[in-house]
Amino acid sequence: MSSFKVYNQEGKEIANLELNKAIFKLPWNDDLVHQAVRVAFANQRQVLASTKDRSEVRGGGRKPWRQKGTGRARHGSIRSPLWKGGGVTFGPTTERNFKVKINKKMAQKAFLIVLSAKAKDNEILILDDLKLSAPKTKEMAKIMKNFSQVKTALLVLESNNENAKRAGNNLPNLGIININNLNILDVLKYQYVILTKSGIEYLTKKYVASK
Question: Could you tell me which residues belong to the region Disordered (predicted)?
Answer without folding.
Answer: 51-78
